[in-house]
Write a structure and sequence with these properties.
The complex is a heterotrimer of chains A (168), B (431) and C (289). Chain B has 431 residues and is α/β, with parallel strands linked by helices. Chain B has helices at residues 15-26, 57-70, 113-117, 156-160, 165-169, 219-226, 269-283, 303-314, 366-373, 410-429; strands at residues 7-11, 30-34, 49-50, 55-56, 74-77, 80-88, 91-98, 122-123, 132-133, 136-137, 149-150, 182-188, 190-193, 197-199, 216-218, 247-254, 288-293, 316-320, 325-328, 334-340, 345-350, 353-358, 360-362, 398-400. Chain B folds into 3 domains: 3-99 and 181-196 and 363-429, FAD/NAD(P)-binding domain, CATH 3.50.50.60; 113-169, no CATH class; 201-359, 3-Layer(bba) Sandwich (FAD/NAD(P)-binding domain), CATH 3.50.50. Chain C has 2 domains: 3-122, Glutathione S-transferase Yfyf (Class Pi), Chain A, domain 2, CATH 1.20.1050.140; 137-288, Rossmann fold (3-Layer(aba) Sandwich), CATH 3.40.50. Classes of the chains: A mainly alpha (168), B alpha/beta (431), C alpha/beta (289). Chains in contact: A-B, A-C, B-C.
C-alpha cells in the first residue's frame, strides 16, 4: 500500500518550487524520447505526479518509473507549458536515492570513484599520453589529487556514494 | 446638447458589435457602426456551425446582418478605421478614415460579373488564405453590405494603370476609380470597442510541424474547408493529396495555458473541437475523430451534455494527454506522439489530418487602437476592463465587449454586447 | 576577451585527435586560446551531477576559480562541460546563499568563487567568427552531405545555455554551409543521440541511436558531424552495436566540426589523426579531394 509522505513532497518543493506548477498535461511525456521507446514505462509526467503526491517509496525504493532512465535531453523542460524544471527535480530525487543508500546503476559509482581517485572521469593512461605526443599535443597538468580529495571531503562525496548497499 | 449626442459609436462589426448596435438602435439611440473590412460579420461569418446547437453559423447571423444594414438608427461605416479621439464622455469627437471602395454603392447589384473577369489573384483572408480571390471582391458570398470592393493594393489599374476590365463589363456602370479616401468626423456620446480577435500562429511551436506538414492545419482553416461556401465546397479533402481523410485528430491547447506562449485558456477550444468533430462525422460516417486534451472545459449550460453527445452519437474519442510532438511518414500522414494519461502509455498514432485548436489572441492593431482611444491594455494586450465592471474600459465613456477584452464564445459575446450597450446608453441618459 | 581551453575528460583522455583538430582550427582562424592547468572533471552533468548536487557545484566552482585566477574566460570543447560550467555559474551567480555555502567548501582548498569568468562552447566562438572561416576556406567540401547533430546540452536548457534556438537550431548547419558542405534536413535532427542513458540501460540508448541513424539514412547523409564528445562516441563507437542487434548496416563516418573545418581550410590530413576514428573515413576523404 502506498503512503503519502508529506515531508518528502514539501522538501522537494522547497528545493525546486517549480514542482508546484505542474498541471499534469502530459506534454513532457509526449516530448520524451525515452518515454516513447519504453511505451510510457519510463514516464516523466508520472515521476512528477508521484513527487507531488509524496509517494516516496515508489520513487526512491521501487524506482517505478526508474528516474535513472532520463537521458537529460531537456526536451521536457523546454516544452513544459508551466516551466516545471523536470530534470532538476529528477536530480533531487536521484540525490536522495544515493543518500538513502538505495540501489542505482553501477556505472555512476564507477565514474564517481574515478573522480575521487584521479580527479577525472577518464584518467590519462600511458597509451593515450603517447598518442597525445604523437599528435603534437601539449602535456596536461591534471588537478592535484590532494586538493580534490580535500574539497570532496568537505562535501562528503565519498561517504555518500559508498552508502549504496548499506541499507540492505 | 440635443438629439445629436444620443449617438454611440461601435467599433467592430462582428457578432458583439452587431448585437450592441441592434440593442442600442432598438432603444432609439443612433449608432455609428465602424467596420474595418468591406463587410460586417466578423469571425462568426467564417464558421460553419456554432455550438452547442450546431446551427449553421451564417444562417443565424444573416438576419442580424440584414437588420443592422437596414435599421434606420444604424449607420454603417465600412472600410473605416478610427484615427483620432478627443472630447469627453457625452461628447466625444472621433475622426474616421473611410477608405474608398471604388464602387458606386447605389449601383452595384452584386451580380458577380466583374469577379469573373478580373485577372488578378490575391490570397483570400476570409478563407484563411486557402484560396485566391480577385482584386475586385466581396469578403464572403453572403456579405453585408452586398456590394463589391476593389483592393487597390492588388488592382492592376492602381498598380500599373492597366486593365479596367471590371469597368467595361459592369452593366450598372458601378465602377468608379475616381473615388478617394474620406476623413469624417463623428460626434458621439459614448463608444463601444468590439474589435474581436486573431488566432495564434502555431508555426512558432516547431515540434508540431504546422507550416512544414501540409496535413496539419488550424481549426479556423478547418472551418473554411468544411464549410459549404468554403474553398472545398463543403467536401472535406486533405491538403497534401486531396484524398478523403478518414482519421482526424484535434489537438487542444495549442499555444494556450502555456507560459512560453499564451498563459491563459482560450475558453472555446474544448467546445469547438467537439463541434468540428461532430460536423466531420456528419459529412462522412466513416470518419474517426480523436480529441487530445488537458482538461475538458465545458462549463456553459448544456455544454457537458454536448460533450457526452460527442461520445455517444458521434464516436469521438477523447484522449487525455497534450501533444508536443508530431512527425510525418512518407505519405505525409501526420504521426502524433502522445501519452494517454488514463493508461500512462506513450504511443505513436497515425492520422490523415490533424487540426490544431490555437489560442484566441488580441488583434495585432489592438495596441494602436488602444493608444488612439487612450484606453489601457492588460498584460496579454487584451483591452483591459475593470474588475467588477469588465465592460468598462480604463476611460470613462468607452466600453468593451466580446473577444477583444478576453477570449469568449458567441453566446457570451452576445451577452457581453448587451451589457456594454446598456452601459453605453447610461452615458447618454445623463443630464 | 582572452580564452583558455577547458578540455574536459573525454577528449584529452580518449579522443585526443578531436583536441588536435580544434587547436589547429582556432590557430588557423587566428583566435588565440591558451591552456589551463589543474582542471578536474567538470563534473559530468549526466554522471556525478546526478549523485550529489553539492559536490557537483563544488567541483564546477573550483574549475571556474582556476580560470578566474588566471584572468581568462573558458572555451569548452565539450557540450557537457559547457552545460555544467554554465549551470554552476548560473546557480552561484543568482543564489547568494548557495554561493556562500560553496565558497565555504572552497575555502578548504584556499579558493573563492567570484563569478568573473565567462563560458563559451567552442562552436559558439566558431560561429561568431564564421566570416573568418568562410574567408579562409581553400577546399570547400562540395557535394558532401552532412547530417549535423547539434545534440542536447549544446542547446538546452535554453535558460542556462542561452545560445541557439533550443527546438530549431541553426548554428551548426550554418557552420557546415560555411565550409561548402550540404547540411541535410532530416526529421530527427533535434533528437538526443542516447549516450547519457547508456549508463542505465544500453538497449534504450541503442534504440535512440538507431532512430537517429535511420532518419539520417532516409535523408541521404554521407557522414555525421558533432560538437560533443559524448555524441561523438555514441555515433563512432556504437553503430556497430546497433548493427549487431538489429541486423543493420550503418557505417556513417563521424566527424567533429573542427575536423571538417580543418579539411576545408586545406590542412593536410596527416596531422589530424583521422585514422584514429573507429569508423573509417577514407571514403569521405576521397569524396572531398
Amino acid at each position: 500500500m502506498q503512503t503519502v509522505d508529506f515531508e518528502f513532497r514539501n522538501e522537494l518543493i522547497k528545493e525546486d518550487f517549480s514542482l508546484n506548477y505542474c498541471y499534469q498535461c502530459g506534454t513532457c511525456s509526449s516530448a520524451c524520447p525515452v518515454a516513447f521507446i519504453t511505451n510510457g514505462e519510463y514516464n516523466p509526467r508520472k515521476i512528477i505526479e508521484q513527487s507531488l503526491l509524496g509517494l516516496k517509496d515508489l520513487l526512491i525504493k521501487d524506482q517505478k518509473p526508474n528516474v535513472w532512465l532520463c537521458c537529460t535531453c531537456q526536451m521536457c523542460v523546454e516544452e513544459c507549458p508551466q516551466n516545471v524544471f523536470l530534470t532538476e527535480i529528477f536530480e533531487k530525487i536521484k540525490n536522495r536515492i544515493v543518500v538513502l543508500g538505495e540501489p542505482y546503476p553501477e556505472t555512476y559509482k564507477v565514474q564517481a570513484k574515478s573522480v575521487l581517485e584521479n580527479g577525472l572521469a577518464i584518467p590519462l593512461t600511458q597509451p593515450i599520453i603517447r598518442r597525445r605526443d604523437q599528435l603534437g599535443l601539449p602535456k596536461i597538468e591534471s588537478a592535484n589529487i590532494e586538493e580534490i580529495t580535500k574539497l570532496l571531503n568537505a562535501t562528503n562525496f565519498e561517504k555518500k556514494i559508498n552508502l549504496m548497499g548499506e541499507n540492505k | 446638447m440635443g438629439e445629436n449626442l444620443k449617438r454611440v459609436m461601435v467599433i467592430g462589426g462582428g457578432i458583439a458589435g452587431i448585437q450592441a448596435s441592434l440593442d442600442l438602435a432598438e432603444r432609439n439611440i443612433k449608432v455609428d457602426l465602424i467596420e474595418k473590412n468591406a463587410c460586417i460579420g466578423g469571425r462568426m461569418a467564417q464558421l460553419d456551425k456554432t455550438f452547442p446547437t450546431n446551427d449553421c453559423s451564417i444562417c443565424i447571423l444573416a438576419p442580424k446582418l440584414a437588420e443592422c444594414f437596414r435599421h434606420p438608427n444604424i449607420t454603417l461605416h465600412i472600410l473605416s478605421e478610427v484615427k483620432n479621439l478627443s472630447g469627453q464622455p457625452g461628447n466625444f469627437k472621433v475622426k474616421i478614415l473611410k477608405k474608398a471602395r471604388y464602387i458606386k454603392e447605389d449601383e452595384c447589384i452584386n451580380c458577380g460579373l466583374c469577379i469573373e473577369k478580373c485577372p488578378m489573384r490575391v490570397d483570400d483572408e476570409f478563407d484563411m488564405r486557402l484560396r485566391k480571390r480577385r482584386a475586385i471582391y466581396i469578403d464572403y458570398v453572403q456579405g453585408v453590405p452586398s456590394i463589391m470592393t476593389i483592393d487597390r493594393e492588388n488592382c492592376l489599374f492602381f498598380t500599373k494603370n492597366a486593365c479596367r476590365i471590371c469597368e467595361k463589363v459592369c452593366e450598372k456602370e458601378a465602377i468608379d476609380f475616381d473615388q478617394i479616401d474620406e476623413e469624417i468626423e463623428l460626434n458621439v456620446g459614448s463608444i463601444i470597442v468590439a474589435t474581436g480577435y486573431d488566432i495564434f500562429n502555431p508555426k512558432s511551436i516547431e515540434t508540431l510541424g504546422y507550416g512544414r506538414y501540409p496535413n496539419v492545419i488550424t481549426a479556423l482553416e478547418f472551418e473554411r474547408l468544411i464549410c459549404a461556401s468554403g474553398p472545398l465546397g463543403g467536401h472535406l479533402t486533405r491538403p497534401s493529396d486531396k484524398n478523403d481523410p478518414k482519421k482526424l485528430a484535434f489537438i487542444n491547447c495549442v499555444g494556450s495555458r502555456d507560459i512560453k506562449n499564451n498563459p491563459y485558456c482560450s475558453s472555446c477550444c474544448c467546445m469547438y473541437t467537439t463541434k468540428e468533430a461532430m460536423i466531420a462525422f456528419e459529412h462522412d460516417n466513416e470518419i474517426e475523430t480523436s480529441i487530445f486534451y488537458i482538461d475538458l472545459r465545458a462549463a456553459g449550460k448544456g455544454f457537458r451534455e454536448y460533450i457526452q453527445r460527442g461520445v455517444n452519437n458521434y464516436a469521438i474519442k477523447y484522449i487525455k494527454g497534450k501533444v508536443a510532438k508530431i512527425l510525418e511518414d512518407d505519405q505525409r500522414n501526420p504521426l502524433i506522439i502522445y501519452e494517454d494519461i488514463s493508461t500512462s502509455q506513450v504511443k505513436q498514432l497515425k492520422f490523415d489530418l490533424v487540426i490544431l485548436a490555437t489560442t484566441m489572441v488580441p488583434k495585432k492593431d489592438a495596441n494602436e487602437l488602444a493608444k488612439t482611444l487612450g484606453v489601457k491594455l492588460d498584460n496579454f494586450n487584451f483591452f483591459k476592463g475593470e474588475s467588477f465592471h469588465p465592460q468598462k474600459s480604463s476611460k470613462e465613456g468607452i466600453f468593451l465587449c466580446g473577444a477583444c477584452r478576453e477570449p469568449m464564445d458567441i453566446p457570451n459575446s452576445v451577452i457581453d454586447a448587451s451589457g456594454a450597450a446598456a452601459k453605453a446608453a447610461e452615458i447618454l441618459m445623463r443630464g | 576577451m582572452s580564452y583558455n581551453y577547458f578540455l574536459g575528460c573525454v577528449i584529452p583522455g580518449r579522443l585526443p585527435f578531436i583536441e588536435a583538430s580544434a587547436r589547429k582550427a582556432f590557430e588557423e582562424i587566428g583566435i588565440k586560446v591558451g591552456d589551463q592547468a589543474k582542471c578536474s572533471c567538470c563534473p559530468d552533468p549526466t554522471g556525478t551531477a546526478q549523485l550529489d548536487h553539492e559536490s557537483f557545484l563544488a567541483l564546477g566552482a573550483r574549475n571556474l576559480c582556476l580560470f578566474e585566477e588566471n584572468n581568462s574566460n573558458i572555451l569548452s570543447l565539450c557540450s557537457g562541460c559547457t552545460e555544467t560550467l554554465k549551470t554552476v555559474k548560473h546557480i552561484l551567480d543568482n543564489d547568494n546563499d548557495k554561493k556562500k555555502e560553496i565558497n565555504s567548501k572552497l575555502s578548504a582548498i584556499g579558493k573563492n568563487y567570484k563569478g568573473n569568468a565567462e563560458i563559451k562552447h567552442f562552436a559558439e566562438v566558431l560561429y561568431e567568427n564564421i566570416d573568418k572561416i568562410k574567408e579562409k576556406v581553400k577546399k570547400p567540401l562540395k557535394d558532401l552531405k552532412v547530417a549535423g547533430h547539434p545534440g542536447c546540452h549544446y542547446l538546452r536548457p535554453s535558460e542556462i545555455i542561452n545560445w541557439d534556438d533550443p527546438l530549431n537550431p541553426k548554428t551548426l548547419d550554418e557552420l557546415i554551409e560555411a565550409i561548402g558542405a550540404d547540411p541535410v534536413d532530416y526529421s530527427l535532427k533535434n533528437d538526443c543521440c542516447g549516450n547519457p542513458v547508456e549508463k542505465s540501460d544500453k538497449d534504450i540508448s541503442l534504440s535512440m541511436l538507431e532512430n537517429k541513424l535511420q532518419s539520417m539514412r532516409e535523408a541521404g547523409a554521407d557522414c555525421i558531424v558533432c560538437v560533443c564528445p559524448a555524441c561523438y562516441q555514441q555515433f563512432d563507437f556504437n553503430q556497430r552495436e546497433v548493427n549487431k542487434k538489429k541486423n543493420t548496416e550503418y557505417n556513417f563516418p563521424v566527424f567533429y566540426i573542427t575536423e571538417l573545418i580543418d579539411l576545408a581550410l586545406g590542412m593536410d590530413t596527416e596531422g589530424l589523426g583521422l585514422n584514429f576514428h573507429r569508423i573509417k573515413v577514407n571514403e569521405i576523404l576521397e569524396k572531398i579531394t
